[in-house]
Design brief:
alpha/beta, 10 strands, 9 helices, 39% helix, Rossmann fold, 22% strand, single chain, ten-stranded mixed beta sheet, 2 domains, Universal stress protein
Amino acid sequence: MKKILVPTDFSENSLNAIRYAVQLFKNESCNFILLNTYTPVIYHVEHMEVGAAQYGLLDAMKEASQKGLEKIQETIEAEFQNPNHIFYKISSFNMLVSEIDKLYEENVMDMIVMGTQGASGLKEVLFGSNMIHVLKTAKCPLLAIPSGFSFEEPHEILFPSDYNVDFKESHVNIIQKLASFYHSRINVLHVSNTDKLTTTQKMHQKQLEVFLKDISHLFHLVHDDDIPSAIAEFQSKSRINLLVMLNNKHSFFENLFFGSKVKKIGLHLNIPFLVIPAKA
């Protein structure tokens, strides 16, 4: 059984992410764990005294959280009646990142699916603060679904790489599975201002080629100094349905999403985005 954690704040955006996940894995046996975390503002005040009023507030928030999760489960099960899927609910008084870390250590999930925007719905924001924290710290694959994105089968997958990763089977497992489910083609994109790869880069490219040998794939080289623009342009021209990247520390992934150019690619990233930790 695949174990998929789906954090929700009960927004339409998070509901949309759940809809995408159950459709993506419609033919696979899955446990979906619906997670809602809640913390009242007073929880963040140092040296607080917890009185009867605060306990009453916590009880009310807990009840609202549990009822919200029940409503989401009922909505999804009514829309997608799938005997392959089992739903569980976790309502937790905790910060989201801390709860996800705890659940990972307890082997509750092997994948996370989240909506990219919170309830604020600001169009210019690529990731809400929760998503940024989870992206940076997640120890398992994370699939981010853009607000309002309707499910499409991922027939064209874009996998940008600087070939500075020593590829392992664990890095490409999930891509292999999705590609085999949907008879997808994987487009490996290398953006560089030079024609030549280093000896190490060539070796890593060969490794990747071996892992993808049974899957339809193409290697692309684009000459450009601006990696975000090159990725966005390739994505739009090639009708890409899914963007996949490895999150390896001190890599171009970090520069791309946590550097000064984050807004630039954020304007173009309107497809699901799968992030795989390099230590997977």
